[in-house]
Write a structure and sequence with these properties.
Distance between the termini: 12 Å
Radius of gyration: 18 Å
Helix content: 55-70%
Mean pLDDT: 84
Structural class: mainly alpha
Low-confidence stretches: none
Largest sheet: none
């Protein structure tokens, strides 16, 4: 059943998209190069590494894919059961994601800064962050806020263009509400990546600090669901 999404859930998705940009800044600039939320990028980097491209390694890609797979499987199983029992699965999924990100931040305290060759601890952090992003992708997919996937912006950006006066594609939903969500999603991803890169640049902050900040944001979003009137989602009970 399709239901209307309230403003709080929409802005929660914007905040989660922001944290995706921050997480991927850590993943690409410190742990990899690798991606942990955007697995399209990981697949491509893995294929490039297998082709022998200099500077790329299969290890971080495989760690990311493994962690993401485990996170997605556990999240799907948990959220399905939680929904049947009438529990607020989205809040619980966010709490689980934030906890895993906090653990990743703790492990990352001993990770060397960008420029050092990735070691076992790098891959461990990559796997943990990938696990958190696997949880994220399943939970936000189940919520189903149109134009706000939180971990990819290609479709949101495409819909933003297609639904604009420049294109006027009849198959793409138009209207101010849709366009605002799409624009906010794209802007949040850019802002998160910019913020993450700035925080890491020239050693301003460590990867652990950035990951801990994302964990705090995610947990804050989860807890805030208990302070606002309940908003229904496409599947949440």
């Amino acid at each position: 059943m399709q239901v209307k999404h309230g403003p709080f859930l929409t802005w929660a998705m914007v905040a989660l998209t922001l944290t995706t940009g921050m997480v991927e800044a850590v993943s690409f600039l410190v742990l990899g190069p690798v991606f942990t939320a955007v697995q399209t990028g990981t697949m491509l980097l893995l294929s490039f590494a297998l082709a022998g491209v200099a500077g790329l390694s299969t290890a971080p890609c495989l760690a990311s894919l493994a962690g993401f797979t485990v996170g997605a499987v556990l999240s799907a199983r948990f959220e399905s059961r939680s929904q049947v029992r009438g529990r607020r699965w989205f809040r619980e999924a966010l709490l689980a994601e934030g906890l895993v990100l906090a653990v990743a931040a703790a492990v990352a305290w001993w990770v060397e800064r960008h420029g050092e060759s990735p070691a076992g601890r790098h891959h461990m952090v990559t796997g943990l962050v990938g696990l958190a992003m696997g949880i994220r992708n399943v939970s936000t997919l189940r919520v189903g806020v149109p134009g706000m996937p939180t971990t990819v912006t290609t479709r949101a950006f495409t819909a933003l263009i297609g639904g604009s006066p420049l294109a006027v594609d009849a198959r793409i939903a138009s209207g101010a509400g849709h366009q605002v969500r799409r624009a906010a999603s794209v802007a949040a991803m850019f802002a998160g990546g910019l913020a993450g890169a700035w925080l890491l640049h020239d050693g301003r902050f460590s990867a652990a600090v950035v990951l801990l900040a994302t964990a705090v944001i995610v947990v804050a979003i989860a807890l805030s669901f208990t302070l606002v009137p309940r908003e229904r989602t496409s599947e949440a009970g």
